[in-house]
Design a protein that fits this description.
Largest sheet: none
Number of strands: 0
Shape: elongated
Distance between the termini: 68 Å
Order of helices and strands: HHHHHHHHHH
């Protein structure tokens, strides 16, 4: 009986803690984009989130931990699904032809880039955020190695392109830095960016087009 009585209370506390965490993460994201990573203090995040600064430290311990949580927030999106578990990644794996597979890959990647590229652009040149940036880039490299193997099972690479170079090209051509420059600085539309990325990946990796 005590378990029944305690159940709703524990659930309520858990939901409250999750809501507080999300509020802090969203406040930190807004602050990082507005002030930069090094220009944002934990006090400022706490004020924006409407919590005590001690709460921010209790939940995230360090500013670096908070940045990592923000990275995960923008990459995973509202459904909290890692890229390699998304429906578009699965569709890339299951598609037998390389051209539609690349189209699906780019389309799915842009969904992530829309959320993540502004944050990456902000922290890219900030040495105080270097460790977090390199950690997440390492994870992206690992994922793209898998994608290259998946794509080359459908069509061979150009003779002058190694698997490692193909990974590097894919990282560059569908990466947050290039996306941010095209979208933010050059004002390309999503459709323009998507078509350019698809054409570039097919030509640079496979000699198609």
């Amino acid at each position: 009986m005590s378990g029944v009585k305690g159940g709703p209370t524990r659930q309520s506390r858990r939901e409250k803690a999750q809501a507080t965490r999300l509020r802090i993460v969203e406040a930190a994201l807004a602050a990082f984009l507005q002030r930069g990573y090094s220009g944002t203090t934990m006090d400022a995040v706490a004020t924006e989130a409407g919590v005590a600064v001690q709460t921010v430290y209790f939940v995230f311990h360090t500013k670096g931990d908070l940045l990592q949580a923000v990275y995960e927030h923008v990459v995973l999106g509202p459904e909290r699904v890692p890229p390699h578990l998304t429906s578009w990644w699965r569709a890339v794996e299951e598609e037998p032809e390389v051209v539609p597979a690349v189209r699906t890959l780019v389309n799915g990647s842009i969904d992530v880039l829309v959320r993540a590229a502004p944050l990456v652009w902000i922290v890219l040149g900030d040495e105080t955020a270097r460790e977090g940036y390199e950690f997440n880039e390492g994870m992206r490299r690992d994922g793209y190695e898998v994608l290259v193997r998946t794509l080359t099972s459908k069509h061979p690479l150009r003779p002058d392109v190694t698997s490692e170079r193909a990974r590097d090209l894919l990282l560059l051509l569908t990466g947050p830095q290039l996306y941010a420059q095209l979208a933010r600085d050059l004002k390309w539309s999503r459709d323009e960016i998507e078509e350019w990325m698809i054409t570039s990946v097919l030509q640079q990796l496979f000699g198609i087009g």
